[in-house]
Automatic annotation (TrEMBL):
InterPro entries: FAD-bd, FAD/NAD-bd_sf, MOase
Superkingdom of the organism of origin: Eukaryota
Keyword Oxidoreductase: yes
Organism: Rhodamnia argentea
UniProt name for this protein: Monooxygenase 2-like
Domain FAD-binding: 3-328
GN (gene name): LOC125312479
UniProt keyword tRNA-binding present: no
Length: 418
């Protein structure tokens, strides 16, 4: 009998495992891949994410590697006008946005877990529950036929979550936009004057940008209203690069095209941008019988406010805080009572998730339309000039709270290891 099974070893899954470790709960993380995945290359973390990372005890490791961003420039490709956005320190710990390698974040989180906490090549196929001495027990079946029993199951298995499906949440929908992401490495240094700056470029129906991760690596993205010709998951990286340079972004500034030109082809990905309708979360079932979801499994959203990874880290701390409160009452994880803690977690996260999904979608719609003078006025004057800085500050000020005191855990005896 496991205390907690977490499905998925992404940002949400590993962060949740770390949060639970800190409140004295052992978690087994089931990951279907053979190793930690780093799809997406990099991600931006805003102050609300750094508050969560501080609660998890790992923020100092990442801050030592990545410098903060102090401002952003948004250039209109047609008019050449430039909007200036400043990022001032906010929140309880006075944090600023930073971009980090996704794989480094995963490795930093994994290092915090006891040995053998992650079981790779473990794809779940079904979930069911049953009563055992008047307490709910979760039964997870894996693809190889093995069965794992647990007091709690937390689905952190991404956009197409099996756990979310079990809860009855409606599947995510296509936003009508897609994104290309990549990493460029300049062995002798990129030489950009604007390190510590997020550069963005907007055109009718498209938006792109890049930011430096260090003095040699640059993360870049391109978002458009419709999928590029012939693009699909697993598309040839050279075709993706060529399509961006020669068609989608051909009118963009040379500095952006140079970054795309020197991309590490193995890092290039294309993906449709998916999101869950806000009302599905507002009225949907986020928890049932000691089973819940976190991260993209709960609230997939478009990346326009860079809150996907941030909100996943929030989820982890909030869930750990509520489960920790249950343990402090009983001295251990009691299956009957932990369901109430999970219910309180779902209630606390519901409105926050709805707000982020809605704000992200509307932000993307405004920034990528510009099909008329009215829409350009709304985008350039109202949104960029008056609303963007306030909106980013508003969502980034969220404080997920702190975790109870750390409890030491014995090492898990298992065949797999991290």
């Amino acid at each position: 009998m496991e205390e907690v099974v977490i499905v998925g070893a992404g940002v949400a899954g590993l962060a949740t495992a770390v949060a639970l470790k800190k409140v004295g709960v052992r978690a087994l993380v089931l990951e279907k891949s053979k190793e930690l995945r780093s799809t997406g290359t990099a991600l931006g973390l805003y102050p609300n994410a750094w508050v969560a990372l501080d609660a998890l005890g790992v923020s100092y490791k990442l801050k030592a590697l990545y410098a903060p961003f102090e401002r952003g420039y948004i250039t209109d490709v047609k008019t050449k006008s430039i909007q200036d956005v400043r990022y001032v320190p906010i929140g309880r710990i006075g944090a600023q946005p930073r971009a980090v390698h996704r794989k480094v974040l995963l490795e930093v989180l994994a290092e915090e877990l006891p040995p053998n906490s992650i079981r790779f090549s473990s794809k779940i196929t079904s979930i069911k529950t049953q009563e055992d001495r008047h307490s709910p027990i979760c039964i997870v079946t894996l693809e190889d036929g093995s069965i794992i029993k647990s007091k709690v199951v937390i689905g952190c298995d991404g956009v197409h979550s099996i756990v979310a499906h079990w809860l009855g949440l409606c599947p995510p929908v296509y936003s009508g936009r897609s994104a290309v992401r990549g990493l460029t490495v300049f062995p002798n240094g990129h030489g950009y004057d604007r390190s510590g700056v997020i550069e963005q470029f907007v055109n009718v129906g498209t938006r792109a940008g890049f930011l430096t991760l260090n003095d040699k690596e640059v993360y870049w993205f391109f978002m458009g209203k419709s999928p590029p010709r012939g693009m699909e998951k697993g598309a040839d990286p050279q075709m993706i690069q060529r399509e961006v340079m020669e068609n989608l972004a051909k009118d963009f500034p040379p500095v952006y095209l140079d970054v795309v030109k020197h991309s590490d082809l193995s890092s290039l990905t294309w993906a449709p941008l998916m999101f869950r309708y806000p009302w599905d979360i507002l009225f949907g079932n986020l928890a049932q019988s000691n089973i819940t979801v976190a991260g993209d499994a709960m609230h997939p959203m478009t990346p326009d406010l860079a809150q996907g990874g941030c909100s996943a880290l929030e989820d982890a701390v909030v869930l750990g805080r509520h489960i920790g409160g249950s343990i402090s009452k009983h001295g251990e994880l009691v299956a009957r009572d932990v369901g109430f803690a999970i219910g309180r977690y779902a209630k606390e996260r519901r409105l926050r998730a709805v707000t982020l999904i809605t704000a992200s979608y509307l932000s993307g719609w405004v920034q990528q339309d510009a099909s008329s003078r009215l829409m350009r006025f709304i985008r350039d004057v109202l949104f960029y000039g008056l609303l963007l800085a306030r909106l980013v500050s508003s969502v980034a000020q969220y404080d997920c709270g702190k975790l109870p005191n750390v409890s030491s855990l014995p090492s898990r005896e298992s065949e797999s290891s991290i």
